[in-house]
């Protein structure tokens, strides 16, 4: 094993760069490089994810936001190669330095649940209706360890208690549980094999606000206690800003803004991020409560993306150049990046125009 050295300078900002006390040279828990996902082949090929880069450290919570159809769930499923055979993937998905896209089938089976797990969107549709929930939680334990059936059942009960349910609920069928209880079962299942990374695809969808808050606090506590990495996907920027350290905003299959979650929510640099944030009423802001601002139109059809910046047909501040030139992520200050030509103008200092016009 190659020797590593460590520094002693702490990093006080959990939303910033990796902690400097981490051994130099160790790979991040997850690093996604230029990931592209395309459905179909030839002239029928449809790009669902286009050149996405992500990075997650152990103990870090990354939120991914965007409207339906922006590629969030496709991205989540791609991380563990759970997409249908019609999907073509390129790029790199490095989990502890090992590329998921080049893993052989046996190695991939070993990584799922044990290395990384996923909380699927819609617990009722993800659980098997004719099997008791305890048996479903025990199944990955039996597959990935040498546990006996009795030990696996005992572990299933412990996991249910860990997520706030009585161990006796292991005997219940999914239809006998409430929406919040089923979601807790899904989280227990995701934790069954002590994974280092959890991907939660809209874990609070269709839950009332009280249950939603309980689930979010539960996820936060589990991440803190077990030092796992978390990727949480949602259309709700407010939820992600309250739960996550960093936030990536997706539009038309690409990340158009990223940075510390609270900053992206309160002061987005990309017009799309601003529109998402403005769509939710804010406590204490009567104008947003009575007239939350939405965004006209819908995300573009991936099979017929507009030229230039894909957001320009809906953008309230689009320039003529936005219709012809696509925008790459660029530095937006404070460990933030945004794919908008106006970012450079926003960062210009007072007097810059006068300085440029002076011979």
Write up what this structure looks like.
There is one protein chain. With 359 residues, this protein is of the alpha/beta class. The chain is 31% helix and 19% strand. It has helices spanning 72-78, 105-111, 123-126, 133-144, 149-162, 179-190, 209-226, 237-243, 261-266, 271-278, 286-290, 342-347, 352-357; strands spanning 30-39, 46-56, 61-65, 87-95, 98-99, 116-119, 197-201, 229-234, 246-251, 254-260, 330-331, 337-338. The chain has an 8-stranded mixed β-sheet, with helices on both faces. Strands 2-1-4-5 form a 4-stranded antiparallel β-sheet, with helices on one face. The model is unreliable at 1-23 and 349-359 (pLDDT under 50).
Quaternary structure of the protein: single chain
Number of helices: 13
Helices and strands, in order, run as EEEHEEHEHHHHEHEHEEHHHEEHH
The average pLDDT value, as a whole number, equals: 85
Q: Let me know the largest β-sheet.
A: 8 strands, mixed
Strand content: 15-25%
Order of strands, main sheet, comes to: 6-7-8-3-9-10-12-11
The total beta strand count reads: 12
Short summary of the structure?
The chain has 359 residues and is of the alpha/beta class.
Could you give the topology of this structure?
Elements: E1 30-39, E2 46-56, E3 61-65, H1 72-78, E4 87-95, E5 98-99, H2 105-111, E6 116-119, H3 123-126, H4 133-144, H5 149-162, H6 179-190, E7 197-201, H7 209-226, E8 229-234, H8 237-243, E9 246-251, E10 254-260, H9 261-266, H10 271-278, H11 286-290, E11 330-331, E12 337-338, H12 342-347, H13 352-357
Parallel strand pairs: 3-8, 3-9, 6-7, 7-8
Antiparallel strand pairs: 1-2, 1-4, 4-5, 9-10, 10-12, 11-12
């Amino acid at each position: 094993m190659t020797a590593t050295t460590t520094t002693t300078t702490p990093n006080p900002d959990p939303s910033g760069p990796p902690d400097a006390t981490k051994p130099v040279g160790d790979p991040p828990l997850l690093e996604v490089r230029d990931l592209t996902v395309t459905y179909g082949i030839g002239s029928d090929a449809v790009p669902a994810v286009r050149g996405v880069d992500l990075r997650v450290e152990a103990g870090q919570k990354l939120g991914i936001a965007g409207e339906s159809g922006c590629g969030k769930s496709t991205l989540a499923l791609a991380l563990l190669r759970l997409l249908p055979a019609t999907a073509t993937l390129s790029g790199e998905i490095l989990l502890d330095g090992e590329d998921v896209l080049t893993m052989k089938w046996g190695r991939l089976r070993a990584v799922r649940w044990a290395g990384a797990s996923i909380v699927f969107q819609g617990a009722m549709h993800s659980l098997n209706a004719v099997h008791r929930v305890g048996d479903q939680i025990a199944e990955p334990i039996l597959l990935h360890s040498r546990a006996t059936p009795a030990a696996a059942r005992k572990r299933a009960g412990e996991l249910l208690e860990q997520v706030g349910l009585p161990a006796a609920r292991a005997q219940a069928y999914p239809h006998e549980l409430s929406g919040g209880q089923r979601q807790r079962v899904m989280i227990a299942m995701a934790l069954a094999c002590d994974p280092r990374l959890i991907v939660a695809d809209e874990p609070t969808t269709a839950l009332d606000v009280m249950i939603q808050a309980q689930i979010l606090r539960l996820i936060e506590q589990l991440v803190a206690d077990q030092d796992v990495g978390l990727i949480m996907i949602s259309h709700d920027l407010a939820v992600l800003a309250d739960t996550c350290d960093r936030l990536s905003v997706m539009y038309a299959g690409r990340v158009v803004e990223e940075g510390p979650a609270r900053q992206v929510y309160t002061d987005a640099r990309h017009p799309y991020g601003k529109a998402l944030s403005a769509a939710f009423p804010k406590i204490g802001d009567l104008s947003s409560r009575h007239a939350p601002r939405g965004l006209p139109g819908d995300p573009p059809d991936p099979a017929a993306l507009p030229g230039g910046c894909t957001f320009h047909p809906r953008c309230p501040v689009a320039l003529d150049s936005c219709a012809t030139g696509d925008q790459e992520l660029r530095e937006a200050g404070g460990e933030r990046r945004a794919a908008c030509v106006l970012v450079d103008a926003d960062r210009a200092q007072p007097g810059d125009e006068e300085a440029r016009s002076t011979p």
